[in-house]
Amino acid sequence: MKRLNKKGFTLIELIAVLLIIGVLGTFIAKRYIGFDIHAKEKIEAVQQTAQSRKDGLYKYAGIEKSEEDAATDVETEEENNSE
User: Fold this and answer.
1) Terminus of the chain with fewer CB atoms < 10 Å: N or C?
2) Is 44 helix (H, G, I), strand (E, B) or coil?
3) Distance in angstroms (rounded) separating the CA atoms of residues 45 and 51
């Protein structure tokens, strides 16, 4: 029997490649799943630190907060309480 000149991949080869991609995808997903939560926590910590340093600077300089700064403080507190 003469063998035909086949081009392409067999079904088994395609399934094996998809399986390997799926396994690698699960490892990658497990590794990066909690990054958004940690990033939000770090952002909140940086915002609180910046706010406290800003408040300390105003206090040290004897400057009263402007209306814009007071509004920003209220917005930041509302955002932190809503999450």
Assistant:
1) N
2) helix
3) 10
- The DSSP call for residue 34 is T
Cα-Cα-Cα-Cα dihedral sign, residues 47, 69, 81, 60: positive
Q: Locate the domains of the chain by residue range.
A: 34-83
Cβ(82)–Cβ(40) below 8 Å: no
Rounded to the nearest 5°, which phi and psi values hold at 55? Answer: -60, -40
Q: Tokens for 6?
A: 């086949």
**Prediction pTM value:** 0.44
Q: Are 73 and 51 in contact (CB under 8 A)?
A: yes
Burial class (CB in 10 A: 0-12, 13-18, 19+), 11: exposed
pLDDT in tens, 29-74: 888 887 777 888 899 999 999 989 988 888 888 888 776 766 666 5
